[in-house]
Amino acid sequence: MIFWRVKPLDQILENAEKKSLKRQLGALQLTMLGIGAIIGTGIFVLTAEAAQKAGPGMMVAFVIAAVVCGLAALAYAELASMVPVSGSAYTYTYAVLGEALAWIVGWALVLEYAVAAGAVAVGWSGYVNGLMNAANMGLPAFLQTGPYDGGGFNLLACLISLVITGLLVIGTSKSAWVNAVLVTIKIAALIAFVVIAVPAAKAPNFEPFLPTGWGTPMGGIGVLGAAASIFFAYVGFDAVSTAAEETKNPNRNIPIGLIGSLAVCTVFYLLVGYGAVGADGAQPMYDAAGTLLEPGSEALAAACANSSMLVCSKEPLAHVLRSLDHNTVAYLVGMAASLALPSVILMMIYGQTRIFFVMSRDGLLPAVCSKVHPTFHTPHIITMLTGVVVSLFAAMFPVGILADVSNSGTLFAFIMVAIGVMILRRTQPGRARPFRTPLVWLVCPLAVAGCVLLFVNLSAKALTVFAVWSVIGLALYAAYGMRNSELARRQ
């Protein structure tokens, strides 16, 4: 072990049975949950962000991010099938690398899930505000965006986060079926976009293909910077693993949900990205001195005030369709995004609460965080607390900043999972593995390398937030978790 106090896999499984959640989700529901978590703000909104960072080169960024996520998914599938317990990367790290690293991973996952939920809520509000503005029913500009994006308080993003929280308190099964309907709407919207935009693609719109180059570490721009951001568009498949304790036959169904949802979304993303670039162009904006404007900055917001470029749109897919004179379909796609993006918020908040639930059960967080409602059978207290925090994130920050910060925690967790798979192959080669990562000594090192590559190409702001967040987490662990964990009490 790297730090101390490793929790054996058998003990993790035993504890899960003592204080468990009701198993009620099947393979189809899990796959739909995965698709619901993946297809969202990343493709509906961050397409414009990626275009500002890489121009048409964002097509390559989509491929890079998909490859890295695919490698990580194979590692996740093996551990999720071996340890069908809520907690995702936190639980797996606890079993392999020890309690201290597990805490760091669990703390980092707050960036992945809670911050990501806020980012999606901001993306959703962009589409809804667009629809309301078109109908001359728009909110005051102050209430349409947060203070870093030219406004003051993103009211709609705050409200949708609270509504989703209420739905999750009511019950998981109900949430899953609502999610299935919303996923269907999202897929229909993307199919409509692909059918119209892909045939309209023109070769000149892809030139220059790499206007900002490949990028530099901590620069947050170029193809690698765009890949580090667009990685957010694929994140969510691992949220399937957080539902392990609520899954029927998890050894079979968890791998199906993980890999199946990622495969479906990758195909859609490549087609949508090609259609957006080819039909409308995706060149970035520069200031008067020829310097690339930073995505999510006040300077870009000011430059975009009177611009109709794709990189300026808060609703890029609807924007592309309007540029092709398909106004009715653009309206319908905007409506679909408005109806369907909440499913991603749902899955992100869901994943966050289940991780807190397991950390509380392990004694690293107060016991109240794992209290289950007697009627709804959900961890209602931590769900409500998480929802309030997410609503505040969404109200104050722009989508690009939230997405990059979220990715920092996600990439760190993925690295730990891939390392964990390799260690268990050496230390416990005889343990049952219902799903085995193929070519593990190639796949897992490549997954680690890919995640590190994207991590160092995040913006300096995102990496700074990650460092500060980690220090705060370690301080909390030293003050509470180190002394109150279940393993500490047994010693």
From TrEMBL:
Pfam families: AA_permease_2. It comes from the Bacteria. The keyword Translocase does not apply. Its main location: membrane. The chain crosses the membrane at residues 27-46, 58-77, 152-170, 177-201, 221-244, 256-277, 329-351, 381-403, 409-427, 439-456, 462-480. This is Amino acid permease. It is a multi-pass membrane protein. Keywords: Membrane, Transmembrane, Transmembrane helix, Transport. It is found in: Membrane. Coiled coil: none annotated. InterPro entries: AA/rel_permease1.
